Amino acid sequence: MQALKVAMLGCGVVGTEVAARIQNRNEALAERIGAPLELSAIVVRDTSKRRPGIDPSLLTTDAETAIAGADIVIELMGGIEPAKTLIRSALDHGSSVVTANKALLAANYGELMSAADTAGVRLEHEAAVAGAIPIIRPVGDSLAGDRIDRIMGIVNGTTNYILDQMDSEGWGFDEALRTAQELGFAEADPTADVGGHDAAAKAAILASLAFHAPVTIDDVHVEGIAGITPDMVATARDQGFVIKLLAVCERVSDSSAGAGLSARVYPALLGRSHPLATVRGAFNAVFIEAEAAGSLMFYGQGAGGEPTASAVLGDIVSVARRKVLGGRGQYERPFHKDSTILPISAITTRYHITLDVVDRPGVLAAVSEVFSDEGASIELMRQTVGETDDQGTQHAKLVLATHSNTDAILRGTVERLGGLSVVRAVKSVIRVEGQAQ
What we know:
Catalyzes the conversion of L-aspartate-beta-semialdehyde (L-Asa) to L-homoserine (L-Hse), the third step in the biosynthesis of threonine and methionine from aspartate. By secondary structure, this protein is of the alpha/beta class.
């Protein structure tokens, strides 16, 4: 069969790896597809820049011409614009698109998927979430006949490495981050990772796909890990927990605001027996709860040139096979645009609270009174004697685990606790995930 022309937008680390694999493994790919692939153009900003392994004759700055002559367009530029405009142009030309652009999809998922459906082509994006881990196709295809109720995942390798080192080696946040940067797990500016924004973009994509609703990154509640301290990690370990930055997407039927969807990212406690608690280093994992399939977990490398290139190549093979067979896109169901995205305040959760208190009679009664007034309840309370301060006052560490309640009520409880005269400081507040609520 005639070769399928492939145009690539962007040629960074991942793009270079993808181009090399298309050229070096063409025969094997052709056998799997049913037709050879021809890399017809690579769109870059500067064609004079030396790119080892890349044929200079393929380089161009003319994106529109490259797109117009392609059967498949690979977008690896990143960012919102001009990537969005070029993807829309490719779809309008009848080209299927493969992208790893999580920021773009997190902001425009519904619009771009609808555009692909209208054009009768595919917009594949396996590499946009969790690197080499196959999660988009299992959620979109393998579980298409099931009902997904909840997705909980570790989808950022940088933060998982940092928290893992803090737990296993006793490092502080700054030391763990610095080592992650030295090893190439973290960027020079790690804000998107440690602030939870990278994970939030992936949560928006997963929620949109799993619940068939246009969830954007603006709908995702985000908290990062910069406030996690060695003391918080040690306290969690003593209680049988590990701290992980989790992306949680779920259907909620009984919140204080009614039924709807929730997408959120925050550091949370996981019991050490939970499958996600064992995910170490810079690895990622996604845990799915479905009505018929039950619990499923997908695990693997979440970042890096080679793992991401693997996901991109898988998408290329998928869309190329569809081209050969003459099939259309698979996005036949409309998005539920009236889906309610619930605020974090309405979500039922549990808190793990650590207080620095004055060690004297009446402390526990004062704390219990606040919980009673706010309509919250204590599941577990543990007090350990601390040091004596410079004024000769003995203080203690009081660890409280709450029963389930709305986030708004528990947050109000913490604010009240911080105002008590017997509370020297609220040392930490962290949610608990992974157990029945």
